[in-house]
Amino acid sequence: MSIDPVVAFFLLGLLGGRMGSDLKLSSGLYDTLTIYLLLAIGLKGGFELAQSSVGALVIPVLVVVAASAVTPVLAYQVLRRGGKLAHPDAASISAHYGSVSVVTYAVGSTYLAQQAVDHDGYMSIFLVFLEFPAIIIGALLARGMKRDTEWRELAKEVLFGKAIVLLLGALVIGWVWGREGAASLIPFFEGLFKGFLALFLLGMGVMAANRLEDLKRVGGFLIAFGILMPLLSAVGGVLVGWGLGLG
C-alpha cells in the first residue's frame, strides 16, 4: 500500500479509544517519545546543515519567521470577526497555526522519503524558526501590547521552552559533528525513528478518540476553520517555497 503503515498506528489508537479499550500511554512515556522525536529531527537538520551553505539559508529563514508571525495574526482576525470567539480563545487557537507540529513534520517527511520524493533535509531547521515567533505572537495576542509587558520573561519562556532547546541543541550537535562524527548515534536516532513515531501516533490516536465528543460543542465554524486554515496555509507555504526555489 502507498500509505505508510506508521499512520495505521494512529488509526489503531483511535479505534481502540472509541471501543472503550483501556489502552493508553503514560505521561512519562509520552514525554520521552516527544523528546526523542525532537532530538532526531534536530540532528537530521544539523547533518544536512553541515553539508549546506549557511548563507543560502538566510533569506528562507527570514521568510519563515515572517510567515510564522503573520499567520497567527490572520487566524486571530478570522476567529474574532468570523467566528465571534472571545479574545482569549481566539488568541490561544490562532497561536497554533504559526508553527508546525513536530509529528506532522515527521509523518510528512517520512512519507516523502517512502515515495522517493527528493526534498531538502535541512527543512527541519525551519521548525526551530517557526516555533519562537508563533509563541511570541500568540502570547502578545493573549496579553496585548502593554507597557508593563515583561519582555525578558517572555523571551525566556520562548527561547528556553522544551521544543526550542531540544530542536536547536540537536541541530547544533548535528551541524558541529556531522554525520560521520555522530555515526554511533545514527542507529538509534534514524534506525528506530519510525518505531518511536508509531508509538507516539498510537498515543495520539487514543487522545483523539477521547476528544471526539468535543466536536459537538465547538460548532460548525471551528470545524471548518480547523480543516481549511491548514490547507490554505499549506498552499501559501508551497507558493512561498516555490518562489524561494526550495526543493
UniProtKB/TrEMBL annotation:
Transmembrane segments: 30-47, 54-79, 121-142, 154-178, 184-209, 221-244
InterPro entries: Sbt_1
Pfam families: Sbt_1 (PF05982)
Keyword set, alphabetical order: Membrane, Transmembrane, Transmembrane helix
Superkingdom: Bacteria
Signal peptide: none
Xref: PANTHER family: SLR1512 PROTEIN
The protein's name in its UniProt record: Permease
Organism whose genome encodes this protein: Acidovorax temperans
